[in-house]
Amino acid sequence: MIIGLTGGIGSGKSAAADRFAQAHGIHVVDADLKSRVVVEPGRPALGQIVDRFGDAILLDSGELDRAALREKVFAEPAERRWLEALLHPLIREEITSDLSRAESPYALLVSPLLVESGQHQMTQRILVVDVPEALQIARTAQRDQVPETQVRAIMQAQAQREERLRHAHDVISNDRDLAALHAQVDALHQRYLALTQGAHA
């Protein structure tokens, strides 16, 4: 069974995924990490991105300057669509290959764009880490040291909170401390184990 874990920027997806992995040994595939792998130097996708946007989006090391690229594509919806059309199929291949190696009773696919990218079609259940918008903005601005306006632009590109919750089978409410988050993850882990055993029964 593959469970999709999603939530807006700054919602605590990583903290929830870490708890599943470290406390319960669950195989976690992070779509964000896969999105970095497909644009590593030497990968064809990086060449196509440079052809389109120029060398200015490369760091001195030859790696992609993700901040510079983000600025370009969030300002220009047509460019974002071009980039997504290039990268989403490549990211999907990387995710599929990693999930196929999972040995835990179920696996987690962590993705901020689970709903928008169509990646939710690879999962049997969707778990949303939900947090009030004001808290989301405050946490992200502090964590990434970016202005609130940039956080809001990223949030605009992600599914709106209501849309995510509409797809959710399970919801973790992350408006309290880490212990409260862990308790919710632990309870869901038991529930998912019961579901996988039911599927095998």
Automatic annotation (TrEMBL):
Keywords: ATP-binding, Coenzyme A biosynthesis, Cytoplasm, Kinase, Nucleotide-binding, Transferase. GO terms for molecular function: ATP binding; dephospho-CoA kinase activity. InterPro entries: Depp_CoAkinase, P-loop_NTPase. It catalyses: 3'-dephospho-CoA + ATP = ADP + CoA + H(+). It is found in: Cytoplasm. Pathway: Cofactor biosynthesis; coenzyme A biosynthesis; CoA from (R)-pantothenate: step 5/5. One of its GO terms (cellular component) is cytoplasm. Its main location: cytoplasm. Its EC number is 2.7.1.24. ATP binds at residues 10-15. SUPFAM superfamilies: P-loop containing nucleoside triphosphate hydrolases. GO terms for biological process: coenzyme A biosynthetic process. The keyword Cytoplasm applies. PANTHER family: BIFUNCTIONAL COENZYME A SYNTHASE-RELATED (PTHR10695:SF46), DEPHOSPHO-COA KINASE-RELATED (PTHR10695). Catalyzes the phosphorylation of the 3'-hydroxyl group of dephosphocoenzyme A to form coenzyme A. Belongs to the CoaE family. HAMAP family: Dephospho_CoA_kinase. This is Dephospho-CoA kinase. It comes from Halopseudomonas phragmitis. The gene is coaE.
